[in-house]
Write a structure and sequence with these properties.
The protein is an alpha/beta fold. 57% of the residues lie in helices and 10% in strands. α5 packs parallel to α8, α7 packs across α8 and α10 packs antiparallel against α11.
């Protein structure tokens, strides 16, 4: 059995044009084992176009109303493959607007047949002159932000041509997201689960400046970036709440000690209050990060010791770097502490995500 026969191609289609039927025919002619077209609520006026899709034993059309979004369509198609197509070992998702050539679909199937691990991403060459400005710069910015926040470089974050082994189907179906943000959620989940994301160079096709795309620049870009930045914003929120808790506890302990132990020296009282407040606010911050920021379901006995390492290292580095830069640069320690703590804030986020609350595939 060749690689194409082992592969199921899932095509989400919302109000497609006349290119879809011949595209499906070309996939049939290429020997693709299963072709699943998902009519994502295109409406009555498109029934004729879907009716022109070649009837073949390898072709299956899923139709529903109303429009649910690309994420819904992809998951509906993948669920069908998971439940009804046990002979297909690989899954390729492809767009219906002509951007993904049959040749590249077959190259992806061949590549997975040679090495099926991870997520294979069809990567377009954005340096070509015919690539629309918004696509070139949008992907470049998104790739950079993704690398900074999730630690993996993905050269084409918005590609719809993706391939993976059927073992990943349950994870792909479980990923949240109904519209274009679903595909970004997949990348984030793969980064969290340590699923390697590999690039396969593909032909870059933009017809009529990509006017056939249903991607809404402002609204869908906002959805995508809200997904990318959601975890980091939750981290900021948890940190601010922890700061408030820390300060309130400090005030409480300091005032209680002042009244209860009046003979205690001010330095000792402040030191005890600071350490006690910081330890308790640290436990609060750990809980917030574990439950709401990184949503870690692992054992506390594994993540908490790691968190303590980061917690104490962060305090030590703050003091060390602030003192060192104050000495070397002659800048006020009160001034230099601000950029030092901002830098350590980003470092702490990265380390907690990739080590403290690290998710893994077994």
């Amino acid at each position: 059995m060749n690689s194409a026969r082992k592969t199921a191609v899932v095509i989400p289609a919302y109000k497609p044009d006349d290119r879809l039927p011949p595209y499906v025919q070309a996939l049939i002619d290429a020997g693709v084992g299963r072709i699943v077209i998902v009519d994502d609520g295109s409406g009555e006026e498109y029934r004729g176009l879907f009716g022109r899709i070649p009837q073949h034993e390898s072709v299956h059309i899923i139709s529903y109303v109303p429009n649910g979004g690309k994420g819904v369509a992809l998951k509906r198609g993948m669920a069908y493959v998971h439940e009804e197509c046990p002979e297909q070992l690989y899954v390729v998702t492809a767009d219906s607007d002509g951007q993904h050539t049959v040749k590249d679909v077959l190259r992806m199937a061949d590549a997975m047949d040679e090495d099926s691990h991870g997520l294979l991403l069809g990567s377009r060459d954005f340096t070509q002159p015919d690539v629309p400005f918004k696509s070139r710069n949008g992907n470049r910015i998104t790739s950079t932000v993704f690398k900074l926040l999730y630690g993996q470089w993905v050269s084409d974050t918005q590609t719809g041509l993706r391939g993976f082994a059927r073992e990943l189907l349950p994870m792909m179906i479980a990923v949240k997201g109904d519209r274009y943000e679903y595909e970004m959620n997949v990348l984030i989940e793969c980064a969290h689960q340590r699923v390697e994301m590999r690039a396969l160079p593909i032909q870059t096709v933009y017809e009529n400046n990509n006017e056939g795309s249903h991607f809404r620049a402002v609204r869908d870009s906002a959805r995508i970036y809200s997904v990318i930045l959601a975890g980091f914003f939750r981290f900021i929120g948890a940190s601010l709440m922890s700061f408030v808790v820390d300060y309130l506890l400090y005030l409480l302990f300091n005032n209680v000690l002042r009244v209860a132990v009046p003979v205690l020296a001010a330095v000792s009282r402040i030191s005890i209050s600071t350490v006690a407040a910081r330890l308790l606010s640290g436990v609060f911050n750990f809980t917030m990060n574990r439950k709401f920021v990184f949503k870690d379901d692992g054992a506390v006995k594994k993540s908490f010791p790691r968190y303590l390492v980061v917690f104490f290292m962060n305090m030590a580095l703050s003091a060390l770097l602030t003192s060192a830069l104050h000495t070397w640069l002659g800048v006020s320690e009160n001034v230099i502490k601000v950029p030092v703590d901002i830098l350590l804030f980003f470092v702490s986020y990265t380390v907690q995500q990739r080590w403290v609350f690290r998710k893994g595939r077994g």
